[in-house]
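Suppose you are handed only these lines of text.
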Amino acid sequence: MKLCMIGTGYVGLVSGVCFADLGNDVVCVDKDVNKINLLKKGKIPIYEPGLSELVLKNYKNKRLTFSTDLKKSIYTSDVIFICVGTPTKKSGSSADLSQIYNVASEIKSSVNSFKIIVTKSTVPVTTGDEIEKILSKKNKKKNFSVVSNPEFLREGEAIRDFTYPDRIIVGSNDIRSNRVLKNLYAPLISKGAQYVHTERRAAELIKYASNAFLATKITFINEIANLCEKIGINVEDISIGMGLDKRIGSRFLRAGPAYGGSCFPKDTKAITSTADKFKTNLSVIKSVIKSNENRSSLLLNRVYEILNKKIKNKKITFLGVTFKANTDDMRDSSSLIMIPSLSKKGAIIKYFDPTGYKKEFSRVKNVSNVNTIKESLEGSDLVIVHTEWNDFKSINFKNFIKGKKFIIYDMRNIYSPKKIRNQGFKYYSVGR
Ligand code: UDX
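From them, the structure of the protein bound to uridine-5'-diphosphate-xylopyranose can be written out as follows.
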């Protein structure tokens, strides 16, 4: 099939190259000329394990092409995927759909034969109806179909999540588009993926409800971790004990710092804003948003306690600053709250992250990026494990001691408390 992916970010580029790898002819379109030129040179603008190899392979066999010419790309394609960003509006919680509607009006004047327009971007319920209205201004209803096909790709695991999805959700209100999409996903269905056809609005809501539920699950265990700290028991035992119940499941039940990323914060806000529009109060998700927003200051209070409220001139190391491991993404990472706050209190901060320097800290006083774990630990008073990179999991801290022993605050519970304490370190973690 001939596919056009509009937008070459995490969603458009990953989905596009994976569709090409399934044997489709895919053109990835972006209005950012530099981005497209980089892609044509095999330079991938995002950090996603395995992506550059897959892009090069499919670009070489000509199944994957890149273009800035949207009209021509739509003319030559059967299925058009909208994969542009829907960030939270600067003011308030609802999603900014300006990019979606701009693309929809560009598509409006490029429909030269029957087209299936698919929103893969995460869009609020009824967005498909609005896109239909825009297209109908210039095209007869029988010349196009608007479909919702949300993605469930995790950063750092995106290719695996595309190739082995738990389910494929397709929301369409006509038989023809459903048949075409089912055919497009046939190679994944034959490997066991569940294909679920719903009404379009239902598919739009499934995406938000799924992310909001995962965010709720994480916030739930984070609050249980707070209780465990007070009782003096290990939250990891609670996660194991709960997770073995098949109705609960063990994944997304790991306590840590506030959740971040480009999706959970944005999608939890957007679904509550959609519900408010429909005069329905999603009180549970609203409290998840609040609880997560408070979490960074809660963990910062723990840091103040650990350092006996003396932060000024204390040397603090951050191991990892990205919102999670296996990504270079800093969006809504809890380090963006914690590091500036500690800097304001006079701490001297060094950070090491496997993905390197972060411009987000360029204007924060007394914060420096170092290139090795060793450098980051030298002279430190407190070492904070912020991101659960594999690089940190087998550090032998004893080898890095010169003079005073630093304290360790493991925000991801990646170490065994007993082992670290037996090495003579003061060790703190989350919910333990
Ligand atoms: C998420 C959804 O998982 C994915 O399906 C959707 O398509 C996009 O949003 P992503 O944001 O890439 O994916 O990251 P994810 O792995 O879900 O983690 C989100 C946040 O939750 C991170 O800050 C992570 O550290 C945190 N998390 C995750 C926990 O704190 N505990 C867990 O057990 C799992």
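What can we learn from it? Residues 151-155, 211, 214, 218, 252-254, 256, 259-261, 263-264, 323-324 surround uridine-5'-diphosphate-xylopyranose (CB under 6 Å). The longest strand covers residues 2-6.
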